[in-house]
Amino acid sequence: MDSLKQRILQEGSVLSSDVLKLDALINHQVDPLLTMEMGKEFAKRYAEQEITKVITVESSGIPAAFATASVLGVPLVFARRKKTLIADPDAYCERVPSFTKGIVTDIMVSKQFLTKQDRVLFIDDIIANGDAARGLIKIIERSGAHLAGLGIVVEKSFQAGARTLREQGIRVESLVRISSLDDGIISFED
Ligand code: 5GP
After folding, report:
1. Which CATH architecture fits 2-188?
2. Mean pLDDT score of the chain, rounded to an integer?
3. pLDDT surpassing 90 at residue 71
């Protein structure tokens, strides 16, 4: 998605050789028109998959996931991050390490909103090591829902997350792939 590449070059900043700050576009401020473009692109790529639900993890995945769900005309479910560790028999729960915060959080999805009748498209903002994705994929598997694939806004392809998922046979579509942040320079693949 060339428009997204341009905006990342203009408004992103490299914090270190593995962290890109995208607060102006994705992680703090959101551009509705650009986000709708993301949603249209994901919806196009998964148009044949008879998606019944879009799923993401709060909070940064929500805008692109909402845009995608809106174009596909299906509900959006976002996994919530839990602060307390009270077991809930009515929810699927997984523990995931957070790449940027360096802490572990629990994510949960109510069983009511994810069932084996669902064909799910999982949208997320950024994939690094893939821990967040793996946590939500485990929840989707436990629910019996079919995972059609992932739609990732920014794949950092120099980290292993997306590659590992593809090696497991999971479809991962990324709007832009960043091959390096070395020397403060954002390099794209293709
Ligand atoms: P992972 O679990 O794949 O290692 O990391 C995924 C999550 O960490 C993303 O949803 C994103 O919120 C955050 N994250 C990972 N890498 C970056 C980065 O370079 N910049 C920002 N802003 N967030 C990141």
Report:
1. 3-Layer(aba) Sandwich (3.40)
2. 95
3. yes
